[in-house]
């Protein structure tokens, strides 16, 4: 065959057959894209690191009383061991996005793994018996702060890793696996902490149990991740990665109407889910539901969310219907949130409460990796870390605002015979109504006003096949080719 001749053929890219009229140069370029098996090792390291960091974040929340007793501090001080992750993440997020896009994936992950390990070890050594009780809490807080510094380096990485290491038909799946390892860590913390710290004296054993895996993960990251990118790109967008400089990327995002709508809508969703996870036990105890049942609802929320993320992640990898899946899921999430706001105010409705929590997680939690991919598609060629990082910052800021607002709207109850909350009992009727209203409002904004092209997919198609062709022109060219006589 002549080198400059055109041939009509079906070229296999990933899992789909794409009919195109290719030149020999374009065909050679397409066949040069390669996915390396090493990508699964990098993904595994990120998943383990993400899971470990989440367990460090939520170590003390399930055993707050035992932790306060051992560290000789108040419950408010124990709450700050978790809140420090939000406080630290907001100002550091911009530096983290710059580091990921400028210094690369390898340096960011290795630095995150070392900070995660040193933070976990410092927490443990700060609670051993030879350490004075006066300095135990400051040392634990310092360890938590190091873990909080590591969090943005870890949690911003899934979209970047998926873009650089995985072919286009696996990106959403890789993003889903990496992103859902964080809520898996939250689930493990809710199981492991109460199981190990049955009394206050077992707090050091609990911290040791969390510290040991961080050493192994740090070793894997340092030794196993040898480069930020594979030797050859897995896709056209990875090959032609032309991410804008950090400042220019921020400017482009602030002028991108579709991205700004996504930023507010999804950031509000993160804030709502943070409030739901944090306040679930306080909301349910008013109507007589026990802490064990609240823990079960939280577990169902995460389990069904992880299952939904796997299901929808595989689906969008095959179909590329990011917008449709996002809009449908956000709509059902709002309906599930309204249903929860109603049944949570009713006593003796365990089945209904558990069902609404499961649906809330299935449709809401599962949308996280899909929206992360959508943020890259609507903002390309802005760097993946910048577009995903700003979504995270928006979610953190709105989480703090929503938490303060919802708690300020509670009213103290003087007579509540069903309560299992202890002495302080508050009505959550108005806050739940506000939470449902916020969810519905931002869902409507997203469904009605969010429209975008898939910029990265279009760039990949043009880089691989040349000028983008319509379906009709492809069919016409195939018909003309079929009419031409074949020659040997």
Automatic annotation (TrEMBL):
It is a multi-pass membrane protein. Residues 467-488 are annotated as: Disordered. GO terms for cellular component: membrane. It is found in: Membrane. Gene3D superfamilies: MFS general substrate transporter like domains (1.20.1250.20). Keywords: Membrane, Transmembrane, Transmembrane helix. GO terms for molecular function: transmembrane transporter activity. It comes from the Eukaryota. The keyword Membrane applies. The chain crosses the membrane at residues 40-60, 80-100, 107-125, 137-156, 177-197, 203-225, 259-281, 293-316, 328-346, 352-374, 386-406, 426-450. PANTHER family: MAJOR FACILITATOR SUPERFAMILY PROTEIN-RELATED (PTHR10924), SOLUTE CARRIER FAMILY 49 MEMBER A3 (PTHR10924:SF6). This is Solute carrier family 49 member A3. It comes from Parambassis ranga. The gene is slc49a3.
């Amino acid at each position: 065959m002549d080198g400059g001749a055109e041939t009509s053929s079906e070229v296999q890219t990933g899992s789909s057959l794409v009919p195109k009229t290719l030149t020999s140069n374009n065909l050679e370029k397409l066949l040069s894209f390669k996915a390396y098996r090493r990508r699964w090792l990098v993904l595994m390291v990120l998943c383990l690191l993400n899971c470990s960091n989440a367990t460090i974040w939520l170590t003390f929340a399930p055993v707050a009383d035992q932790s306060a007793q051992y560290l000789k501090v108040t419950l408010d001080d124990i709450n700050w061991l978790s809140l420090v992750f939000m406080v630290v993440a907001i100002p550091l997020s911009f530096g983290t996005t710059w580091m990921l896009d400028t210094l690369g994936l390898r340096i960011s992950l290795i630095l995150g793994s070392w900070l995660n390990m040193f933070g976990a070890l410092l927490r443990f050594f700060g609670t051993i018996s030879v350490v004075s009780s006066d300095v135990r809490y400051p040392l634990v807080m310092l360890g938590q702060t190091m873990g909080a510094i590591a969090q943005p380096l870890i949690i911003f990485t899934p979209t970047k890793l998926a873009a650089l290491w995985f072919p286009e038909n696996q990106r959403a799946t890789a993003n889903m696996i990496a992103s859902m390892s964080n809520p898996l860590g939250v689930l493990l913390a809710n199981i492991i902490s109460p199981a190990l710290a049955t009394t206050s004296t077992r707090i050091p054993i609990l911290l040791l149990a969390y510290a040991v895996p961080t050493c192994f993960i740090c070793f894997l990251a340092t030794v196993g991740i040898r480069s930020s990118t594979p030797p050859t790109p897995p896709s056209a967008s990875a090959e032609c990665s032309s991410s804008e400089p950090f400042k220019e990327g921020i400017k482009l995002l602030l002028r991108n109407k579709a991205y700004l709508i996504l930023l507010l809508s999804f950031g509000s969703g993160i804030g709502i889910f943070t409030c739901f996870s944090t306040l679930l036990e306080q909301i349910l105890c008013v109507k007589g539901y026990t802490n064990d049942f609240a823990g079960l609802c939280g577990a169902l929320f995460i389990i069904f969310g992880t299952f939904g993320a796997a299901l929808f992640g595989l689906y969008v990898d095959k179909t590329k219907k990011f917008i449709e899946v996002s809009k449908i899921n956000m709509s059902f999430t709002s309906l599930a949130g309204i249903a929860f706001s109603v049944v949570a105010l009713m006593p003796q409705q365990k089945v209904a409460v558990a069902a609404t929590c499961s649906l809330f997680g299935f449709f809401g939690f599962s949308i996280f990796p899909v929206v992360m991919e959508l943020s890259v598609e609507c903002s390309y060629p802005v760097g993946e870390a910048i577009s995903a990082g700003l979504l995270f910052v928006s979610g953190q800021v709105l989480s703090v605002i929503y938490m303060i607002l919802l708690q300020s709207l509670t009213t103290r109850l003087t007579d509540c015979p069903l309560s299992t909350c202890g002495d302080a009992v508050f009505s959550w009727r108005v806050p739940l109504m506000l939470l449902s209203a916020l969810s519905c409002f931002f869902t409507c904004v997203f469904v009605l006003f969010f429209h975008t092209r898939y910029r990265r997919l279009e760039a990949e198609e043009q880089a691989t096949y040349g000028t983008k062709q319509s379906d009709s022109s492809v069919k016409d060219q195939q018909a003309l080719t079929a009419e031409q006589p074949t020659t040997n």
